[in-house]
Amino acid sequence: IEVIGGTNVQFAHDPKTGRVVIIEINPRTSRSSALASKATGFPIALISAMLAAGLTLDEIPYWRDGTLDKYTPSGDYVVIKFARWAFEKFAGVQDKLGTQMRAVGEVMSIGKNYKEALQKAIRSLEIGRYGLGFAKDFNQKPLGELMAMLAEPTSERQFILYEALRKGADIDTLYQLTYIKPWFLQQMKELVELEQQILTCRGVRLSDELMVKAKRDGFADRYLAKLLQLDESIIRQQRTALGIVEGWEPVPVSGVENAAYYFSTYNAPDQTTASDRPKVMILGGGPNRIGQGIEFDYCCVHTAFALRDLGYETVIVNCNPETVSTDYDTSDKLYFEPLTVEDVLSIYEKERPLGVIVQFGGQTPLNIASELEKNGVRILGTSPDTIDLAEDRDRFRQIMDKLAIPMPESGMAVNMDDALAIASRIGYPLMVRPSYVLGGRGMEVVHDEEMLRRYMAAAVGVTPDRPILIDRFLNHAIEAEADAIADGKEAFVAAVMEHIELAGIHSGDSACVIPPISIPPELVETIISYTRRIAREMGVVGLMNMQYAIEDGKVYVLEANPRASRTVPLVSKVCNISMARIATEMIMAAVKGQPTSLTDLKQKSIPHFGVKEAVFPFNMFPEVDPLLGPEMRSTGEVLGLADTFGLAYFKAQEATQSTLPLSGTVLISVNDRDKAAVIEVAREFDHLGFQILATDGTQKLLIANGIPAQLIKKLFEGRPNIVDAITNREISLVINSAAGKQSQYDDSYIRKAAIRCKIPYITTMTAALASARGIAGYLASGQSGQPIRSLQEYHFRING
Q1: Domain ranges of the chain
Q2: Second label for 148, Cα 20 to 30 Å away, from 41, 91, 435, 657?
Q3: Could you report how far apart the first and last alpha carbons of the chain are, in Å?
Q4: Greatest CA span in the chain, whole angstroms?
């Protein structure tokens, strides 16, 4: 097919006959190109670009010998990719794998043998598992039930296989059931057999021989501690006393003789040396998942560049092959390792850096920061205690009371009685969530006691150290957030963002705009003032994100995040400020005891608008209702830039591949809560020339307010109905909100039909109004000839 550049070929192999057939060819770089590049050290995209520029393989030098047409992969190691799923984020979705991709991220692990690499991959996933055994309640199920569960591929299949082997399942039977090759099953069986030997030593010191074998087969210290019912520190002490420490091997990188790209193993001696240069470790974000994606990798990469410019040797630890931080040339040294206490401590003791920066990698490094500090690791920038303070509602409220800054009434509950007492004091509705989570995991708006009882009964892992946080929910409040840089004494607020959706929808799922479009200037100044005062009081060094709600002209603090947030790249690009770089300079100045000053940073007037819109994976989950709420479900984001808010919003929608229509028919069906707001929405679409179809209650309201609307039947009212109109492409845009659990169930078919037929849909009135302004902005830009500008031109206009 005469491909020039990268190509991806997928094969199928019949294990019975040995027949190999081609499934498909993708004449481009693919999702697996980054993985293959990281696994082999061969820069596929770079070479593809050189080929596209006109070079041929026999003209590109190969560092080992000759030219690239002689290239063969090398390296005595095993690489495993393991997908990361997020089924827990989508209520009602069946955990079932098939031809439709459902993973939201992946990890890569490297080991000297398959067993070592597999166990490293498991602990890289950050799903609270450090080994294959005892996941969920699989070990309590009888073998017959486990075998039945293995009949369908699921995200838990490897863990179910492990327990089935523990209970005596035959490899041949498992092969016939799963068609996973017997070699892989045999490797897993050997891990099970070793684990059973380890379990016989429960409560006592593991024999030296078993300890050596366990570590060579990839058993993590924490998993061994769990099996033996001992503290992890005891395992670590025994291991190090025996001289069982990780060795480091380089991954060969094509075209680079001494690329400092390493993986750990307990099966080979150390092949690395640490330099005497002052160095800093950066902990990455691990696998992409809902709530934590490449926004944090952006921060880690810019931090590495800033440290290099400041004269420090940079050491990055990460396990995500999709990221720029795991490119061998982003840092001076790359350790492709899981982000666990064991693995990070091992690297820290090897490299002896000035310290570790944890605030740029999202929740991943923060989860281990306190434990690292207890083990002698110096945390640079904002202290782990300050990070904990922000999560501790009682301590944080004390600071807000001291500063006289309003905050919704709140409390922390560790049991049902606590929760009911707090609800009685505060009143419903409530916002409830676990502590120490990112992406709103487990967050819910609770409207009554029955919902609260159900939430508390279902909550797991609640302890005095990790209570449930309960806040008064501010109905119909505008949400805003601010990103700031602080040096421990002063703070500079880089931007204030206004959310398009109202309070109750997670900030990661809500569209937002810089600069704000409806928040009065005096309230923007209040937000800036609050942010600076809070950063100063908390002693933040580096980045901080603040979340606010505005109700009846009053600004309330919702939460403080003394770390990088997912909006840092957005603010940096819209406002032309290198937030991660400046924050890094503040952190390192504090380390060296040098004076810092943020006075050179000035608030600038932004002459354009930047609109961030979230990207959702609902097309992968057709059975899921796409209504938004306090738990984040988006997997990415886009940015629209323009001179007007309307056009920026339109461009953002277009970038999500959900382009707003310029004409046609709009379907409107809303709940009683939104009836007042829908009148303005419908009037805007009527003025734009759209035909309006509405369900019974909504249609009567619109007619009564002088807005022409035709009646359309709901699904159970006969035919032709809403689904018929959507399926027949008679509708260009769907505006549909739901109220209460029962209504959400009843009319979810409208939203699901829109997704199935790829019709743009909107579920909030604020987004509907923004969409009308977006369409109007696009139509006006066509008449006025809106110029196309590069990002650099937008930035020049700020500085100019």
Answers
A1: 1-62, 63-241, 247-382, 409-472, 478-606, 656-784
A2: 91
A3: 50
A4: 84
Phi-psi group of 542: left, alpha or beta (phi > 0 → left; psi -120 to 50 → alpha; rest → beta): left
Domain covering 409-472 in this structure, CATH number: 3.30.1490.20
Question: Which residue, among 217, 247, 222, has the nearest Cα to 235 in the 3D structure?
Answer: 222
- Per CATH, which fold does 63-241 belong to? Carbamoyl Phosphate Synthetase; Chain A, domain 4 (1.10.1030)
The answer to whether 359 touches 564, Cβ cutoff 8 Å, is yes
**pLDDT given for residue 457 in this prediction:** 83
List per-block mean pLDDT (blocks of 10 residues) for the chain, which spans 800 residues.
90 92 91 90 89 91 74 86 92 89 95 98 96 96 97 97 97 96 97 97 92 97 96 94 93 76 94 93 96 94 98 98 93 96 96 97 94 97 93 89 94 89 91 73 85 84 82 91 96 97 91 97 98 97 97 94 96 97 96 86 92 94 87 94 96 95 96 92 97 94 96 89 95 86 66 94 95 95 80 87
DSSP helix/strand/coil, 209:
helix
Cα 422 to the center of its chain, rounded Å: 31
Per CATH, 247-382 and 656-784 having the same topology is answered yes
DSSP string, 369-434: HHHHHHTTPPEESS-HHHHHHHH-HHHHHHHHHHHT-----EEEESSHHHHHHHHHHH-SSEEEEE
Query: Is the overall model pTM greater than 0.85, yes or no?
Result: yes
Provide the CA 778 distance to its chain's centre, in angstroms: 31
Beta pairing, strands 665-669 & 691-694: parallel
Strand 665-669 with 733-736, pairing: parallel
What is the C-alpha to C-alpha distance for residues 10 and 768, in angstroms, rounded to an integer?
A: 42
DSSP H/E element including 112: none
Matching CATH number, 478-606, of 3.40.190.10, 3.30.470.20, 3.90.1640.10, 3.40.640.10: 3.30.470.20
Which superfamily, per CATH, for 656-784? Methylglyoxal synthase-like domain (3.40.50.1380)
> pLDDT value at position 69?
76
C-beta separation of 284 from 339 below 8 A? yes
